[in-house]
Amino acid sequence: MTQVHHHALSGVIEFTPPKSGDHRGFFSEVFKQSVLDAEGVETRWVQDNQSFSAQPGTVRGLHLQAPPFAQAKLIRVLRGAIYDVAVDIRRGSPTYGQWIGVELSAEKWNQLLVPAGYAHGFMTLVPDCEILYKVSAKYAPDHEMAIRWNDPDLGITWPEIGVEPILSGKDAVATPFAEFNTPFFYQG
Ligand SMILES: Cc1cn([C@H]2C[C@H](O)[C@@H](COP(=O)(O)OP(=O)(O)O[C@H]3O[C@@H](C)C(=O)[C@@H](O)[C@H]3O)O2)c(=O)[nH]c1=O
Question: Which key words tag this protein in UniProt (predicted)?
Answer without folding.
Answer: Isomerase
